[in-house]
Predict the structure.
Amino acid sequence: MRWLVGGEVLDVDAGTFRRVDVGIDPDTGRIAEVGQARPAAGDDLIDVSGRWVLPGLIDCHVHLTLTTDAGDPRADALRTDAAVALDTAAAAERTLRAGITTVRDVGGWNYVEMAVRDAIRRGIAAGPRMFLAGRLLSITTSTVEYYPGMYEVADGADAVRAAARRQLAQGADLIKVMATGAMLSSETEDSRAIQFTLDELRAAVEIAHDNFRHVAAHCHALRGIHQAVEAGVDSIEHGTFADHEALGKMAAAGTVLVPTVCAGELLFRDEHAVATMPDHLLQRMRAFHDLHVETLRRAHELGVTLAMGTDAGTPGNHHGSNAWECVFMRDLVGLTPIDSIRTATTNAARLLRQPDLGHLGVGAHADVIAVDEHPFDDISALTRVSAVVKAGAVVRS
Ligand SMILES: [Zn+2]
């Protein structure tokens, strides 16, 4: 048995910290006991006295295969798959060491990320638990030249069904669809334009749900959000132009909103990424950022479930800086600290259909982080984790 002793441990549902010890069974990687430590001879004790202990964080929107230093996303387009694999492994390790013990990758690169996931499972690489979409499904668009390894073009409902099946055959855990135009895309693409039709979105949802998988829909445009919710997708990514009616519809349908505020906020803080970003991209990122944050505020007020997602992998949005999203949820969107933490724990686990993630109850996966300051006093403590445990194994202490 491995014991985390002396810490203040978060009960996510109750929203309170309690002075208890956590017993982990290293064989199952799960939490076996919560209470007073009763260590036996040979047990491993990890002292977290005076620290705050939380479930490992879950980021529902990353692109581990993308690098973040260059402002122009096309800089990534010419890499060999071998180079992508090395970049991905490095990104996965940085992400885990920052306390993100689970990620949902919503657009990989030639399935290289699946090889990295398998290497992590075999213990020959370090990284978070990974839920993967494979290639994202898109209509024919000039943006393919920006992300040639990430896009799976499918026009028409039958082609979408076939493309979704191809992702599942490769080992995808979910299906990602581009319901509307993107921001970090070609000059001729418009984020306010509809891409997949309702018919095409329904086709993707049908194949995913028939196979016990969920659907993440990239959506900025208002009508695209309406169509995606109508088609039955499980999460809306970004949601920039959602209005009161669309948000009400999401709340009623239980459609989760994945914010990705980091894509703008961390970009604007990175001088090199800003300086090297093509003009048309920077203009878009600046033009719609405040509106996006305002939309998220209204979404929270209207009772839409938010699940933490960063879009880590976009320019300046570095792997390992993911927990900043929780800070922005608190400081910009106005969530309480515990609600912000819930976006990255219980809400995210529900979206992933993983009841054993996102909390520290008996039987849960032993994915645990510790921070040195009270996160209710300063939520940015989450960006400075001092201990990380994944599946009961110590990543850093
Ligand atoms: Zn994305």
Summary: The domain at 2-55+358-396 is CATH 2.30.40.10 (Urease, subunit C; domain 1). The mean pLDDT is 97.
